[in-house]
Structure formats: C-alpha cells, structure tokens
C-alpha cells in the first residue's frame, strides 16, 4: 500500500497571492504601475455572481484595481462587444475577463475573440491558444496554469514521465496537455471515445482528470505511486437534502494507491483565481514592457 500525500492547493494559492501582492507593491513603487482587471458579468446566474465577487475581492486584496461591469440578462451582443472595445482601449485595464456562460442571445466565441489577446487573462483567445501550441509566450488558461504550478512544485522535473489527460476541452484538457508536452512529458489525451480507459489511465505517472463526471476514476485505474490532479468540480446529493462537492476521482479509493493527490475541494479550485491574478500581473508587465515574474 502506497502512502498518499495530499496536495494543499489552498495553502499554495495563498502563498502565490502573497507573492503577487509583493510584486504589485514593487511595481507601484518602481514604475507607478497598478495592474487592473476588468470582469464583465451579463445576467444573474447565481454561480457566476459568486465567482465574480470572489475574483473582485481577491483582485483588491493583492493591491490591483478591480473594474466590475454587471449588465442585465437582456443585454445585446453589440452592447457587450462595445464594452469589450472600450476596455481594450482603456490603459488602466490590463486584463479582461468575460464571465461564462453568456445568455443565449450572445455568441460567446465572438465576444472572446473581440478581447485584445494581450489583455486575454483567461487565455481563451485563439491567438493565445495558438501561441501556446507552437511554444511562444502566451497567456495560458488559469486552471491549467494552476495544475502545472502544483505539479512543478510537488513533483519537480516532469521530463520523460507518462502523463494522461482525461478530457479534451479547450479550457482545461487541451491546454494542460500542451503544458505537459512543453515540460517533456509523454502525453496521452483521453476522452469519451477512448477505448479501455482504465488501462490508459493505469499507464500514467501523472493523471489529470478533467471530465466533469463525479468519482469516475476508480482506485484501480491509478498506477501505484502516481500523481493525481483532480480538476473536476461536481455537486452531488448528500442524502439529507443538501449537496457536497466531489471531484472526478473516487478520492477514498485513490488513498493508498496514488503517491500524491489533489483533494476536492481545496486542490486545484483555489489555484484558478490565484492564476487569474498572476496572468493579470503578467499582462500588465508585458503591456508596460517590464520583465520579471512571480
Ligand atoms: P467539458 O464538459 O468541456 O469537457 C469534458 C471532457 O471530458 C470532454 O473532453 C469529454 O469528452 C470528456 N468526457 C466526458 N465524459 C467522459 C467519459 N465518460 N469518459 C471519458 N471522457 C469523458 O468540461 P471542462 O473541461 O470545462 O471541465 C471539466 C471538469 O473540470 C468539470 O467538472 C468542471 O467543473 C471542472 N473545472 C474546474 C475548474 C477549477 O477551477 N478547478 C475550472 C474549469 C473546469 P468528449 O470531448 O469526447 O465529449
């Protein structure tokens, strides 16, 4: 039986935010620069409202400027595009995030492609996806960036390791696979059409689960000693009329098999907003022509 250690994403994210706050203070002192993040929320989706509130609070906590734009659910695509153009041109705004999902009358891909790639702190613009794919400097989607930070910190050199990424979405699976490839892993991307999924997963020294299926990855899908990064966030009934969050990995079964694992909640989740702040800082530096990294 392997001893399984938990990766504490909450503590890691707190440390990252504190390093970002120091960098923001330093930028203010040395260059008079205050990074600014604009968040656009259209409609009243309750989950999105919570995310936007948390993002704004953490932005202010690290000393950045936060610009919140809340628009009614019936806002037209043209109005959202006009706001994005205004934010693109605003020198106080270094990062722009349009909270998804957008109401049905708005084409998300048109809105995301209207964001200046230099301010695209979610890393969803095709220019950033393309730059990442060919190995150029890019703004990288926040959750994949957070997963890589946890892996590099806890595992170290990833070169030559077998990595299996479960899920091929543009916002999680594909960018994580690109980053693992850049780190010299041998990468397999699995999805809903993959045959013999448990066998494919058992090859992995590093297993990334990003499917959105509660506890789909069983303990016997995991190679003993592997590092498991569980990106999934699934709300399931608890039995008392309430709900609880679980990941895509059966956490209890993974204990004693995996070498390292991220819990849900408290693993990858907290890294996402911290990496949004990191991307805003990176974008502000690049727009001002200042080098340096947290
Ligand atoms: P998507 O629904 O966009 O993608 C899911 C992927 O999983 C698809 O590629 C799909 O395959 C694959 N898949 C679905 N079912 C199966 C199955 N039975 N067997 C094998 N593969 C399957 O989800 P996202 O990538 O956006 O998100 C994935 C999870 O991560 C969700 O739980 C989400 O909530 C969470 N998440 C967490 C974040 C965080 O901050 N921690 C941020 C973003 C997402 P196919 O392409 O063939 O359909």
The number of distinct helices, counting runs of at least 4 residues, comes to 10
CATH topology of the largest domain: Rossmann fold
Please report the first level of CATH classification, the CATH class of the largest domain: Alpha Beta
CATH superfamily of the largest domain: NAD(P)-binding Rossmann-like Domain
Give the C-alpha Rg.
19 Å
Which distinct ligands sit in these coordinates?
NADPH dihydro-nicotinamide-adenine-dinucleotide phosphate
| Shape assignment | globular
- The helix/strand order is EHEHEHEHHHEHEHEEEEHEH
By helix and strand content, what is the structural category? alpha/beta
The overall pLDDT average reads 97
- Low-confidence stretches are none
Fraction in beta strands: 15-25%
